[in-house]
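Is this the right way to post structure tokens for a design question? Let me know if I should format differently. Anyway, here goes:
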């Protein structure tokens, strides 16, 4: 069994999965344990839809097909990033973009290739399972933070099962297509999807770095 440090440090956004099926019991075990994630006043604001098999194949077909047909994004339901992000966030974001696209051999100005790379999101990078995390429209910032704690718990527990994941806000860009498959109640808004599966170790990647501890943590200890 992986320990917590190993689960945290071995989790990464995997973007190449094997087709190997993920057993339903495994997903149930992970999601049952993840429900112990904390939330303010224990309101447990996560609403999760797990999609596998034929429904997922249909969703991938519809979502990737939209791009091919030129029907791009749905109306945005929330702001993913502020339009003018200041330093250091803007720099970190562009460093990530450069790293990711150079790993794929895509030039900065090659928008078509970037688009193709983005489309891989809607194929779940080949993963055979996905979950979609919704939140009630009436809830606020603090409850969105609860979702993050829940989703990280899911991703760490997946590591304990030998599985990997990729959290994907990209799904929120095609939320109407996701809704066609999962039929969420109207009061729910899609935050993100998450691809889940066994890693295809043949797919190259660059491990994303992190800012040094001093850049993000201040100890005040006299
Ligand atoms: C809320 C959230 C949404 C994300 N959305 C996407 C996405 O749509 N597509 C994608 O390929 N990666 C997505 N990522 C993965 C991040 O790019 C990744 O976590 C970050 O670059 C750090 O890399 P690492 O997770 O591999 O350590 C998302 C991550 C989070 C937490």
């Amino acid at each position: 069994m992986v320990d917590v440090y190993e689960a945290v440090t071995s989790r990464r956004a995997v973007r190449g999965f094997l087709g190997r099926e993920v057993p339903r019991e495994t997903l149930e075990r992970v999601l049952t344990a993840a429900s112990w994630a904390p939330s303010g006043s224990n309101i447990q604001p996560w609403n999760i839809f797990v999609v596998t098999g034929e429904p997922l194949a249909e969703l991938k077909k519809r979502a990737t097909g939209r791009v091919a047909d030129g029907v791009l994004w749905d109306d945005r339901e929330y702001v993913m990033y502020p339009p003018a992000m200041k330093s250091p966030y803007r720099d970190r974001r562009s460093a990530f973009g450069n790293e990711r696209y150079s790993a794929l051999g895509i030039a900065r100005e090659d928008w078509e290739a970037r688009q193709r790379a983005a489309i891989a999101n809607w194929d779940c990078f080949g993963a055979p399972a996905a979950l979609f995390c919704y939140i009630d429209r009436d809830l606020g910032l603090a409850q969105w933070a609860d979702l993050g704690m829940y989703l990280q718990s899911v991703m760490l527990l997946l590591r304990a099962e030998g599985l990997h994941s990729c959290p994907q806000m990209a799904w929120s860009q095609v939320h109407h297509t996701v809704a066609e498959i999962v039929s969420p109640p109207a009061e729910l808004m899609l935050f993100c999807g998450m691809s889940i599966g066994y890693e295809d170790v043949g797919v190259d990647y660059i491990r994303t770095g992190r800012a040094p501890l001093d850049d993000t943590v201040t100890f005040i200890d006299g």
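Format looks fine. Someone answered above. Worth noting: The helical segments are 4-10, 24-34, 53-68, 89-103, 111-119, 141-160, 175-182, 213-216. The mean pLDDT is 95.
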